[in-house]
Amino acid sequence: MELSIPLSTVETVMLAGVRIAAFLVVAPPFAHRAVPGTVKAMLAGGLGIAAAPRAVAAAQEAGLTPGASIASGTPAFLGEVLLQVVVGLSLGFLVSLVFAAVQSAGNLIDLFGGFQIAQAFDPMSMTNGAQFSRLYQMTALVLLFASDAYQVLITGLVHSFDALPLGAGIDLATLAQTLTTGVSGMVVSALQIAGPLIAVLFLADVGLGLLTRVAPALNAFALGFPLKILLTLVLGASAYLALPHVVASLTDDSITGLLEVTR
Fold it and tell me: So what's the pLDDT on residue 247?
């Protein structure tokens, strides 16, 4: 029994797997070091095989010939591989940028609540952060798996083959514009999550300052540390309860950003 596989099919699966692998290396929750590299490689290969028919159909609809770069020579094939790496990394970075709003909100809470002094380096996520930053980040990762939001992200990645078929180039101007919008959206989202708590902590500092002006011998700022810690723990819990809705909204924003880049 002989089994012959066309070279164009092998190339299509390889290119699709390269784009998916580059995406998984950068995009959450797969970019976390708790996910072994072997699992990422196997997942990229399996998804590449599953997405190959869709990629072929999308390329043919766009008037392109999938799997023709090998026949054109090694330089053409390597150029196509490099293009898929760039596309995958760009899409993954866009998704990670959107979800960085959760960690940024935690950093803001740590900064205004006085927890930033106890920040430490997390070798799993390769980031610096204090208690609320790491708590928010780990909760977002858990919610991505628990709510099956990671499947939505993978679905959006597979749909990228429809908008940006294999063999088609990426529009750098659109990518730059989307990344700029993503940065501004990350800042706005972080302020929306941590904004109410930051306002309360700022008002607490103002009140302590006025109290110091009225009674300088009271040393109100020495009493401010336990007060701000109490406010941070109480109000931070209310913001923490809103994270499921926040993660759902950020997932929708990630899919929208993926489709905008590949449109």
Answer: 78
Separation CA 237–CA 247 (nearest Å): 16
How far apart are the C-alpha atoms of 181 and 257, rounded to whole Å? Answer: 9
Who has greater pLDDT, 174 or 263? 174
d(CA 53, CA 162): 11
Helix spans in the chain (H): 7-26, 37-61, 69-72, 74-113, 131-146, 149-163, 172-214, 220-241, 243-261
Give me the chain's average pLDDT, please: 77
Q: How confident is the model at residue 5 (pLDDT cuts 50, 70, 90)?
A: low
Provide the β-strand partners of residue 121.
Answer: 128
- Structural domain boundaries in the chain: 7-261
CA-to-CA dists, residue 243 to 99, 102, 172, angstroms: 12, 8, 33
3-class DSSP assignment, residue 202 = helix
Which comes out higher in pLDDT, residue 259 or 52? Answer: 52
Look at the alpha carbons of 130, 135, 140, 145 in this order and tell me if their dihedral is positive or negative: positive
The three-state secondary structure class of 27 is coil
**Amino acid (1-letter code) at residue 180:** T
Q: What is the pTM of this model?
A: 0.78
Q: Given the structure tokens 């800042």, which residue do they identify?
A: 187
| 7 compared with 10, residue with greater pLDDT | 10
CA end-to-end span of the chain, whole Å?
A: 44
